[in-house]
Design brief:
By secondary structure, the protein is of the alpha+beta class. It is 29% helix and 27% strand.
Amino acid sequence: MVGLDTCDAGPDCDYGPIDNTYPDYDNVGVDGINDCTFASAADWEQIVHGLDPDPAEIENEFHEAGGSDQEGITALAFFTYWSQQGINGVHLTGVNDYSTDQADVESEVRADGAVLAAFTFNGTQTFGPYVPQAGSHMAVVDGFTPAGPLIVTWGQTLQVSWGDWNASVIAMWGVGTTLG
């Protein structure tokens, strides 16, 4: 856990599965690939369904879906593939758009266990302890503290401030799935 704000469990604090560890799905560093969509689906499946997705399989499915190592894949193409082909044997059955304000983040994380979020970075803003390159990114939100949401991405859980969240988040979704 990177930069965790300490708090007592309650209406303003839900650590989610804080002790989980996650593969990075080759989505970090200079030589990493831009498969954050499929990495976020795999992280979500681990959190919500208790699965242990194989990183090689997730990367393979990303490429089968038409994902580019440099450009990634659009959210629409990602959701379409997840629905039609499945990711890690899990099929998407529905997507719900949620508001990204703090009250809705807290409410939906409590209700769903984890949600997906899309971000746009300008290359100068902070996101937890990092200043990501300019571009789009998808990750999982699986908890929150008074300081901000807990984001699973790049093989770790990050404490992000509400200010950083508001400066970069562009969408948040709840997803329904079936196994097999």
